[in-house]
Amino acid sequence: MHKLKKLILLILSISIASLYLMFSNSTEIEASSNDNNSINYLKLKNKSTSLSTIYSEKYQTRIHNQINKQKKLNNYTFQHPLLIRNPYGTNTTAVYMYFKTTEELQASYTIHCNNYADFSQTLNSNTLCGYTTEHEYLLIGAIPNQTNTITVTLTNKQGKVVDTLS
Hints:
Blueprint: H1 2-24, E1 28-30, E2 41-43, H2 51-54, H3 57-73, E3 82-85, E4 95-112, E5 119-122, E6 132-139, E7 149-155, E8 161-165
Antiparallel strand pairs: 1-2, 3-4, 4-5, 4-6, 4-7, 7-8
């Protein structure tokens, strides 16, 4: 009987700890801007601004694991992607973007900022053909302290634009 009580207490403790870990890592959302075209960013937990911390393997692994957890929690689509501003703390104007599509597509983007030349780039899909259904990118090239409009375009294998998001 004593062993049964210990076993029940152990199982209960493990269950409570699991629930705590599952709900304690809740995430926050932050607006990308205060206009009607704003798309919300996910705000990661326990981000650091300390250079010695940011460039440590432990910190980078922790951030990577948070991102992977978020990718599994939701069904991110092109119109509702996972967006994280400067996820690893190493590029203050970068935006991490993740989403899935039903067909293999190629993504490209343009950053527009008044009084500056537009910056455009075809994104690396990490495939030989350049097309994929799982899209994971780091959008770079925004101008700091300015209003940047980022437009992402999806193109099919026939070269036809399938969708755009700004």
